[in-house]
Structure formats: C-alpha cells, structure tokens
Design brief:
This protein is an alpha+beta fold. Helices cover 27% and strands 30% of the residues. The protein is built from 6 helices and 10 strands. Strands 5, 6, 7, 8, 9 and 10 form a 6-stranded mixed beta sheet that branches. A 4-stranded mixed beta sheet has the order 1-4-3-2, covered by helices on one side. Strand 3 and strand 4 form a beta hairpin.
Length: 202
C-alpha cells in the first residue's frame, strides 16, 4: 500500500491517520490555515475518492475540511458506501477526541487549534496516573461540536507516556462517542458481537 495512511501505519501502527472536520466554508478554512503557515496536503486520488482539501498539522497530522456547499459531506456515501438501513446502536455523534503528546508540545497544539478554529481552552488540570502526572486541557468550540482533549505526558512510565512512546508523536489516543442511553447502546453492540476492552476492577 502507498499514500499517507500507509506511511502512518508503517510509522505508528494502528492509529488515526487523519481527521475530517466539517466547517462552514472549506475555502475560508484553507485560506486561514495558509495565512497561519499551514502547509496544504494532497496525494494521488484512488478510484472513487473525493478530492477533499486538507492541511498538514503538527507532528505529521493531516486535517481534511468538509462543508455542505460542494457535496464533500457525501464522502461517507461515496467512499464508504454508508448503509443507513440498519438501526445501529444508538451512537449519535463524536463527543470528543483525545490526543496525547509530550507536555512540552501542549502549548503548540493548543495554539494550533485555537488560532485555526474558533475554539476556547479550559484551565489545565493534573490527572493522576499510578506512575506520575498527566496534564490535561480541553479545547472546544462554544457549541461543543468540536472538542479535543490534549493530554501531556511528562514521563514514559505513565499510561499516556507509554502510548506516546509506542506511536512516535502526538496521536489520537481515543475517540469518545455520544449516546442517549449508554446501557442500551452497549447491549445492542454486544448482540452485534462488539468486544469491549477489559477494565480492571481497581
């Protein structure tokens, strides 16, 4: 395989290779990103793939921009053959994504998000890990439609630090999905064969 997804796999293993964000205007978002010094990203298109404008973020990340004015919001139907006939498990949207990085890179990432998008940042908090502290800060839009949790690891002994060491950069550690009834969603997912991660009783 070739392309950005393949290079991310070779460098980091299983990972989120890029992020798509819906904006009011793709052209305005691209223009703002360019003025702020972001490099445009492009690669050869495969069969049936849409030409979705994108930029390079920090640490090798890629952000695609989608709006409703040019048909790019149909990417799920066109590229992935989205099947809307199934009832699903009641998952409604992405609540937030969590991104892990070294603590010294947190300021760069928070500035990246808050200058490129209309986002606010919460006060930084310390999250206790059995092997050290992880500093955490949320950046989000006023309506909460886009929310990113930035986790800064001081030590590779922490769980966040171990993840950072394994993925070689500021990668997405998890994606949180919203539901109106978590227990009903969990039951439906279990029926479909979904296997949950083992959680320690401690």
């Amino acid at each position: 395989a070739s392309g950005h997804a393949a290079s991310q796999w070779n460098a980091r293993g299983t990972t989120v290779c890029d992020v798509g964000i819906e904006v009011s205007s793709v052209q305005e978002a691209i223009a703002r990103a360019s003025h702020l010094g972001s490099e445009l990203f492009n690669q050869p298109l495969g069969p049936g793939e849409l030409d979705i404008p994108a930029i390079r973020g920090l640490s090798g990340s890629v952000l695609h921009f989608i709006d409703r004015d040019n048909g790019l919001d149909r990417v799920w139907d066109i590229e992935f053959g989205a099947n809307t006939s199934e009832s699903g498990a009641g998952l409604t949207r992405i609540d937030h994504v969590a991104q892990t990085m070294s603590y010294e890179d947190m300021l760069s990432w928070s500035l990246f998000y808050t200058t490129l998008f209309d986002m606010n940042k919460s006060p930084m908090v310390d999250v206790f890990d059995p092997d050290g502290l992880v500093r955490s800060q949320v950046v989000e839009t006023s309506d909460g439609a886009l929310r990113v949790t930035l986790n800064g690891a001081d030590s590779h002994r922490t769980l966040a630090g171990s993840f950072l060491a394994d993925t070689f950069g500021a990668s997405m550690q998890h994606i949180a999905l919203a539901t109106d009834d978590i227990f009903e969603s969990l039951e439906k997912m279990g029926i479909s064969g979904f296997e949950t991660l083992p959680i320690s009783a401690n």
